[in-house]
Design a protein that fits this description.
The complex is a heterodimer of chains A (about 250) and B (about 400).
Chain A: E1 2-11, E2 17-27, E3 31-36, H1 43-50, E4 58-63, E5 66-67, H2 72-78, E6 79-82, H3 94-104, H4 111-122, H5 138-150, E7 156-160, H6 168-183, E8 187-192, H7 195-201, E9 204-209, E10 212-217, H8 219-226, H9 231-239
Parallel strand pairs in A: 3-8, 3-9, 6-7, 7-8
Antiparallel strand pairs in A: 1-2, 1-4, 4-5, 9-10
Chain B: H1 10-26, H2 29-62, E1 65-69, H3 75-83, E2 87-90, H4 95-101, E3 106-110, H5 114-119, E4 126-130, H6 138-162, H7 188-204, H8 207-219, H9 223-226, H10 233-265, H11 279-306, H12 310-334, H13 348-358, H14 365-390
Parallel strand pairs in B: 1-2, 1-3
Antiparallel strand pairs in B: 3-4
Classes of the chains: A alpha/beta (about 250), B mainly alpha (about 400).
Chain lengths: ~250, ~400
């Protein structure tokens, strides 16, 4: 469960760039919430604040009731983050990469070893599990990064542009995994600038533009609100311009 | 998963970071290669070269060959030199050019009026031809000058005796040199080399690894996911520091072992320096260098974390390392007795203690304690500074 209340964040000299500007919404358990917006809309900044990497200038955000600033370590034990940069260690094997984060999350052997085996099975990466990450394909990297983010079985999962650079087979595998997590009652927040990605996966969609929430609702609600016939037209209309749309 | 299966222990997280970084360092061929090459090859190989040089200079003096021009003008001088075991050869006609070119170290030219001048009661003139700017000729020049002074004294004393005057009348001052160098304290250059490379290993041993684990982590964008785990910035800094300290300590021990093995087993030329770097000196070295093995990795981590990329961090570091490498050189050229406060200063203190260990002195507990205080404090400061960098938001602004 994620609750975001009027969160704002500015960067640059004299805080001149308002990256996130008074955003409020909630993401429920057992649901994939889509965070849709063009490049520079503030998606990554918002996710970084939820992941306790950045402190909001104002407003509050909570993950399962824990404040992301005051109780950041409690939050970190509850979230799994797949950041835009996968950031794996090339000289470690896939298994070692996953184990490192598991150990930092406080899992001890042999529970950790069993959990890693479970994830390797679920993600079908047993053939690369004991190879060094150096030389992995984008799809393989994504899978290892996902396994690493899920190693402590987090209730809340933040995914920043998880489909970037993936081929269609990898994207399908990822979608299946995220749906499975959804049925397990997890709270997933999924950011993307690609509308089809979001509409294929997310029940609720939050459209972000220039740091503000432009619209929230299901795909059908967004269509109805905009009066357009396709989601793409709805997206463009809701953003109020044709800026930054990639398909 | 049950909650009970998870612990919340800072020590466990630090250990996890240290373990991962140790594996990562060990698999980093570049870091390992740089460490091993500088540690094992550079120091001991340099040492062999220097020892050979010293040996050759010593040989030059021992088997002194002196080309003489005009030896027929001063048979008594020639006889004196031959009595002193000097091999005299006729000087070639172009000896001045040869000295200038460096083919000859020193040539004795006896003036053709030598015998006539002496007969008239004037001083006889000899010319000593050399080029003092040539380092390797210095020993020969000094030896030739000493021989001529000795002949001058002996001759003068003979003349005085003939006139019934004791030699002491003309030589009221009797200079007797007593060299208080213990066997280990001679061969200063060789000692300097060992101290310098020991210091060098402690300063540089962790460099490649420290940069890779900080600037490299930023460059690979692996820091961002890492900071979303429950590891606190200070735990992260401490874990990385422990791994780099381990590598740094290994570099120091390897370097010193290299010196020990070279001095003990390599077919060394007879240097004439009864010189000692045994296991006891090796142990004293390690004890004296511990503060730097703790401090330098922390400093390197700080510089590395400030760099957005490996390259940026490297160029920042080169300035720091240049300054550090100057310290022992300056200390050697000042050649004053070390002031008592020196042991408090990092780098200088360690160098002073290393020099003492090499002169065969035992390390005093008080001095050793003094030399630990400054680096220990600075290490703590540097680690906290690294942790503060890790908790800055701008650390995420990668490439």
């Amino acid at each position: 469960m994620i609750e975001i209340d009027n969160v704002a964040k500015a960067f640059g000299r004299d805080r001149g760039v308002q990256a996130v500007d008074g955003v409020s919404f909630a993401a429920a358990d057992g649901e994939i919430t889509g965070l849709l917006g063009p490049n520079g809309a503030g998606k990554t900044t918002l996710l970084r604040m939820l992941a306790t990497l950045m402190i909001p200038d104002s407003g509050t955000a909570r993950v399962d009731g824990n404040d992301v600033v005051r109780e950041r370590y409690a939050v970190r034990r509850k979230i799994g983050v797949l950041s835009d940069a996968r950031g794996l260690y090339p000289r470690l094997t896939a298994r070692e990469n996953i184990r490192y984060f598991g150990a930092l999350q406080g899992l001890s052997e042999p529970i950790l070893a069993a959990r890693i085996d479970e994830l390797i099975d679920a993600l079908a990466i047993s053939d690369i599990a004991d190879r060094r990450v150096h030389g992995f394909s984008q799809g393989e990297r994504m899978k290892v990064a996902i396994a690493r983010a899920l190693v402590h079985d987090p209730q809340t999962i933040l995914l920043d542009e998880p489909t970037n650079g993936l081929d269609i087979m990898s994207i399908r595998a990822l979608r299946d995994l995220l749906r499975t997590l959804e049925t397990q009652g997890k709270c997933l927040l999924f950011s993307s600038h690609v509308m089809q990605e979001v509409s294929a996966l997310c029940r609720r969609i939050v459209i972000l533009g220039r740091g503000k929430v432009v619209a929230i609702g299901t795909a059908a609600e967004l269509l109805a609100r905009s009066g357009e016939r396709t989601l793409e037209d709805a997206f463009v209309r809701l953003l109020g311009s044709g800026e930054g749309l990639a398909a | 998963m049950e909650r009970a299966a998870r612990t919340d222990s800072a020590a466990a997280r630090i250990a996890a970071v240290a373990r991962k970084e140790a594996i990562d360092i060990f698999r980093d061929r570049r870091a390992i290669l740089v460490t091993l090459v500088t540690a094992i090859v550079a120091g001991p190989v340099m040492m062999l070269l220097v020892l050979n040089l010293v040996a050759r200079q010593a040989d030059r003096v021992r088997e002194m060959t002196l080309p003489v021009a005009g030896s027929e003008h001063a048979p008594a001088l020639v006889a004196f030199l031959e009595r002193q075991q000097v091999t005299l050869t006729p000087a070639p006609a172009d000896f001045e050019d040869r000295v200038r070119r460096g083919d000859l170290d020193v040539v004795l030219e006896i003036d053709k009026d030598f015998a006539a001048d002496v007969a008239k009661g004037k001083s006889g003139t000899v010319h000593l031809v050399f080029d003092r700017s040539r380092d390797r000729a210095r020993a020969s020049i000094a030896e030739a000058e000493a021989l001529l002074r000795a002949y001058n004294r002996e001759w003068g004393r003979g003349r005085l005796l003939l006139r019934g005057v004791a030699g002491e009348v003309a030589n009221p001052l009797n200079v007797e040199s007593r060299d208080l160098a213990t066997p280990q304290s001679s061969g200063a250059l060789v000692l300097f080399l060992i101290a310098f490379y020991g210091l060098f290993a402690a300063v540089m041993g962790g460099m490649a690894a420290a940069l890779d684990t900080t600037a490299g982590e930023r460059e690979r964008a692996s820091l961002e996911p890492l900071l979303t785990t429950p590891v606190a910035p200070l735990e992260l800094a401490t874990g990385k520091w422990l791994a780099v300290v381990a590598l740094d300590a290994a570099a120091v021990v390897l370097t010193l072992t290299g010196f020990y093995l070279v001095l003990r087993f390599a077919p060394l030329p007879a240097v004439g320096i009864p010189f000692l770097f045994g296991l006891r000196e090796l142990g004293r070295f390690v004890v004296a260098l511990v503060p730097l093995m703790l401090l330098m990795p922390a400093v390197l981590l700080y510089v590395g974390t400030r760099g957005r990329s490996f390259k940026e961090a490297q160029s920042n570091l080169s300035v720091l390392l240049f300054a550090i490498s100057l310290v022992p050189i300056v200390q050697m050229f000042l050649q004053r007795k070390d002031p008592p406060w020196l042991t408090w200063i990092p780098i200088s203190g360690q160098y002073a203690l290393l020099s003492r260990a090499l002169r065969g002195e035992a390390l005093q507990f008080v001095e050793l304690a003094q030399s630990y205080v400054g680096p220990a404090l600075l290490t703590a400061v540097a680690l906290v500074a690294v942790a503060r960098l890790f908790s800055r938001e701008s650390i995420l602004a990668g490439k």
